[in-house]
Amino acid sequence: xxxxxxxxxxxxxxxxxxxxxxxxxxxxxxxxxxxxxxxxxxxxxxxxxxxxxxxxxxxxxxxxxxxxxxxxxxxxxxxxxxxxxxxxxxxxxxxxxxxxxxxxxxxxxxxxxxxxxxxxxxxxxxxxxxxxxxxxxxxxxxxxxxxxxxxxxxxxxxxxxxxxxxxxxxxxxxxxxxxxxxxxxxxxxxxxxxxxxxxxxxxxxxxx
Length: 208
Fold this sequence. Notes:
By secondary structure, the chain is α+β, with helices and mostly antiparallel strands. The protein contains 6 helices and 9 strands; from the N terminus they run αααβββββαββββαα.
């Protein structure tokens, strides 16, 4: 529900993912790795093998994400995580992958324009995503929906509504209704592929 429980869960899930129980000192080193860089740097960190020193002084290698075997990634769904930054923000739905918040979903009631959900994410970006441990800067995909209209887009420092997209089926028919979008796009295996295979890290622009 908050920063403390998010970090405790990260330690547990990352340990499961790497078949390792991290000590206090080892997890402190992990948090140091996670704290560095901007959104683009963190996206690279997410995808690379990491090294810390274990309590014996030996090298300990681990991964935040399995890019090759999607079923090895551990997914959780949580809602109403509250982060205190410039203002207190409570996020609608967050999908955690190996404990890291990689997908953020902002929902509005039917009849409300989804542009309001987009604007809400912009406010979160400005007010609280970079606060405290800044784990929400690791978000790779945002999803906005009012139930009947649903779009997705990649995370960047500057978000542009022109870079929001509809998902479609194999016949290129748009999937706009939230339940149908969820059934298709948010299958764990597909979502892992979207993150690990289909998000392009554009080095020249330093953008996702």
